[in-house]
């Protein structure tokens, strides 16, 4: 008997309603990206005769107030196009900070429930920010329980654990879509040094450094990628030793960056240089830049600035000219009761004065 195509085993799971639902949510994400246009690239004034230009990519102007808005949009888009997210499915994330705030906003935009798994010690202000964006907070006793509890909760309620620390490096298309690296290079096009000598970022998930590092290599640019790490974080030691199993006993005091383990999204082989920045220096950096700009920035931006100051100092000592770009990650208004509270700083045992002197010497105003 001759074979017939109609005899082939066939299973068709086409679901037009589901495809339409996904398509509509992808459209909403694209529309959000278009509305937000792009964030500004700010220039930090330095003596003109140095021939060194420093720029800050101001991610605090996103509607949810931080760099994490890009990540949230990318993670939800990744889940949608992979077929993981379906109508009515709760989305779970392990985050008590800016990522949860941004993801709650995006989830509400897509009409899906969102739950942030946060430590019981999380401040009422942070919980209020997440809830204001439409999210719900699920409390755990310790920070190291967040990931496992997120997965358990997702399994229990038939939800999706978004898992920023695993998927951050792959959710953002490093060749184009929603790419902060492309935006930086386009905005530098008419500047005196359009191809930067360095790009400086911190590491929380590792997704931003992965995106920028890949983009620089893809476009065959000589720009170096420098990652600024903080105290109580495993990234620096893991990068130095090549050991991805490195852990620390306590968490980072600089919100948004630093992790007690080397997260899966951190790609050490594309990082050219790392600088470990003391917490006192990070807080001083935030205050220093806030005074210079007449607006508050978060301490993770201070971490970046200290690493930038180190690179500027080295370029000057070698007689090099060029540009350095870093990120202004979020507003300092969220940290009025911590990094900008003198009593809190004193209680933590931080001495900011020595670092303030260092930064004023390394990054003086023109004519000083």
Low-pLDDT ranges: none
Quote the beta fraction: 5-15%
Shape: globular
The overall strand count is 10
CATH class of the largest domain: Alpha Beta
Structural class: alpha/beta
Question: What level of helicity do the residues show?
Answer: 40-55%
Structure overview:
- The chain has 368 residues and is of the alpha/beta class.
- The chain folds into 2 domains: 36-62 and 173-362, Rossmann fold (3-Layer(aba) Sandwich); 68-168, 3-Layer(aba) Sandwich (Rossmann fold).
- Helices cover 42% and strands 14% of the residues.
- It has 13 helices and 10 strands.
- The protein has helices spanning 16-36, 68-81, 98-110, 124-132, 146-157, 164-171, 180-187, 207-218, 235-241, 279-293, 299-318, 342-347, 353-362, and strands spanning 41-44, 52-58, 91-94, 114-119, 136-140, 160-161, 198-202, 224-230, 273-277, 322-328.
- The strands form 2 sheets. Strands 1-2-10-7-8-9 form a 6-stranded mixed sheet, sandwiched between helices. A 4-stranded parallel sheet has the order 5-4-3-6, sandwiched between helices.
- Helix 8 (207-218) links the parallel strand 7 (198-202) and strand 8 (224-230).
- The longest helix has 21 residues, at 16-36.
- The radius of gyration is 22 Å and the shape is globular.
- The N and C termini lie far apart (93 Å).
- The relative contact order is 0.13.
- The mean pLDDT is 94.
